[in-house]
Every structure is written in structure tokens, then in C-alpha cells.
Specification:
CATH architecture of the largest domain: Alpha-Beta Complex
Number of strands: 16
Oligomer: single chain
Structural class: alpha+beta
Distance between the termini: 26 Å
CATH class of the largest domain: Alpha Beta
Helix content: 25-40%
CATH superfamily of the largest domain: Plakin repeat
Largest sheet: 4 strands, mixed
Number of domains: 2
Length: about 325
């Protein structure tokens, strides 16, 4: 094998994007369809090559059939994805917005809930600073003081879902699915990170930094039918901060409000009473239900302890 399948596919797509597939045996320039007919390329690659060929021959508006340039298609795609971002932070009583880390420090989110949502951000390609609307790498977020060193190390592992895991036997970065197949990440983690990617546009090919839909992702070995079926079952990989129950990322994202200026999504949370305030002189006191918004005479339950996920392994990252 002189070229890996990934390398050969990318080079063929580069040819198609310039307007022709080259038949080196006959020294001819062919369209994608012509190349498929004379078997210069595999017909299984036709769809992906036609997408690349459109960069040269032109795209069409699906509604008007008007020809579109690559720039116009890219601008339209950017516009479509503007409101399709990961959960950026929380919003309290439809007023104050804050980052996930601050919400954890203020005990509005449990450590586990906040950490999983931050990892979802990293897995989709960026950490979001909701105070400046900036999209940052994990290292940039750490340098800005958005989280501590322990969180940085955990988020670098999640970020590999977007930028690629290191294959010990190759220089080619691995996608989440490929890392799962090689035992670099476990299935539960892989499904959680893929679910976050799916909710913001598709599945990331870390070699080119592009989201792909299910069918194309399967063709590019970013997914298989078994993994798709597991994701389609809508696994509850995240935590609803209001109910404390497990929930899927898409359902949690649908609870968010969207900032009309930035397009960022914020999860509404209520500012509940801090359980630590219920301890006096070493004795936990009960308060009336009317003070807590419940029935008279009811007792506020103690805090639910949710530990942050314990990462005990390390992965070499790009």
C-alpha cells in the first residue's frame, strides 16, 4: 500500500476541486462522472468527489437553482451554524449570564454538571468565554484564567475529539470513533463527546476540521452503524441542573435561551438557597417550607454530592 485510504481520498478531492480528475494512464482530464464510468476512481467515492468538484463548477441554491460561489456557500453555512453552538454558560432569572466555571463556583451547577458541559464545548472545537463572546482553545482559556490546571488537563482530553487523538503507530490524528476502536477512549466517553458534536452540526473529521452528517461520516470512518444506533437511542450522558436527572445534550440544549446579539446559548438556572447556609454551630437546621418555597413545615434536604469525573489516564495530544 503506497498511500493510505485517507491520503488518497484527500488528493482525489483536491483534483476534483480544481475541475478535473486526472487519468494518468491516458493523460486525460475527466469529470467525476466520467472518471467513475471508466473506473479511474471508485464509484463509492462519487458523492464526496462531486461535492469537491462543485468548488470548481459551481454550487446551486437548493431553492432557486441559482449558481453560488464557494464564498457564498461558506457564508451561508456560517450563518446557518451561528445559532447552532454548544451551551456557552448559564443565565439566572433571564438576566445575569455567567460562565460554566463561575456557575460551578457559585454552586448553581454541580461540579459534575459543569465539567461535562465544559468538556462538550472542548469536544466541539472551542471553549466559549460568554463575557467576551470569544471562542478559545483549551490552552487559551486556561491562560485567561477561565479554569484551573486540573480542569485544563481534563479539557485537553476532550478537545482531542475535535483536533485529533495521537495514534502511537501513525502520524495521522484520530477521530473519536477511531480512538474508540483503538481503545484510547472508552465507549461511554466516546458517545458523550460524539453526542455533543452531533448537536452542533455533525461529526468532526480532525484531519480537516470539518463537521460531516451521518452518511458522510460513515463513509469517512468517523462513525459506523452500531455507534450511530447507540447515539440514535439518545443516551442520557449529561445532567439537568434543575431536576438533577441524566439527560441528553440535545434535550438540554433545547432548554437554552439564545442571545440575540452573539447567538450564544445559555442554560436557565434558578438561584437556589446555598445548603451550607443551613449549618449553624455544627448543627444542620431545618427551615420552613415557606422560606424555601415549599409546603409549610417541610424540611430542606441536604446537598446532593456530585463529584467531578475522575480522569486517571493521560493521552498524548496534538
Amino acid at each position: 500500500m503506497l498511500l493510505s485510504p485517507e491520503c488518497a481520498d484527500l488528493l482525489l478531492e483536491a483534483q476534483a476541486a480544481t475541475g478535473h480528475i486526472i487519468d494518468p494512464k491516458n493523460n486525460k482530464k475527466l469529470t467525476v462522472d466520467e472518471a467513475c464510468i471508466n473506473e479511474t476512481v471508485d464509484s463509492a467515492d462519487r458523492d464526496s468527489l462531486l461535492e469537491a468538484e462543485a468548488a470548481a463548477v459551481g454550487y446551486k441554491d437548493p431553492y432557486s437553482a441559482k449558481p453560488l460561489s464557494v464564498f457564498e456557500v461558506s457564508a451561508d453555512k456560517k450563518s446557518q451554524l451561528k445559532g447552532n453552538l454548544p451551551i456557552a454558560g448559564v443565565i439566572i432569572e433571564n438576566k445575569r449570564k455567567m460562565s460554566l466555571t463561575e456557575a460551578k463556583e457559585q454552586r448553581l451547577l454541580s461540579p459534575e454538571c459543569a465539567d461535562l458541559l465544559l468538556e462538550a464545548q472542548a469536544a466541539t472545537g472551542h471553549i466559549i468565554d460568554p463575557t467576551t463572546n470569544q471562542k478559545l482553545t483549551v490552552k487559551e482559556g486556561y491562560n485567561k484564567g477561565m479554569f484551573d490546571l486540573k480542569a485544563r488537563d481534563r479539557l485537553l482530553i476532550a478537545e482531542a475529539a475535535a483536533v485529533g487523538y495521537r495514534d502511537p503507530n501513525s502520524s495521522v490524528p484520530l477521530s473519536v470513533f477511531e480512538a474508540l476502536k483503538k481503545g484510547i477512549v472508552d465507549k461511554k466517553t466516546a458517545l458523550r463527546l460524539l453526542q455533543a458534536q452531533e448537536a452542533v452540526g455533525g461529526y468532526i473529521d480532525p484531519r480537516i476540521g470539518v463537521f460531516f452528517t451521518k452518511d458522510t461520516a460513515i463513509k469517512r470512518n468517523l462513525l459506523d452503524e452500531d455507534t450511530w444506533n447507540a447515539l440514535n437511542a439518545n443516551p442520557k450522558c449529561y445532567i439537568d441542573p434543575e431536576t438533577k436527572k441524566n439527560i441528553s445534550y440535545e434535550v438540554l440544549k433545547n432548554k437554552c435561551t439564545t442571545d440575540i446579539n452573539s447567538g450564544l446559548k445559555f442554560l436557565p438556572v434558578s438561584k437556589s438557597i446555598d445548603p451550607s447556609n443551613l449549618i449553624f454551630d455544627g448543627v444542620r437546621k431545618s427551615i420552613s417550607g415557606s422560606q424555601h418555597g415549599g409546603a409549610k413545615g417541610s424540611v430542606v434536604p441536604g446537598p446532593r454530592l456530585l463529584g467531578a469525573q475522575n480522569w486517571t489516564h493521560s493521552i498524548n495530544l496534538y
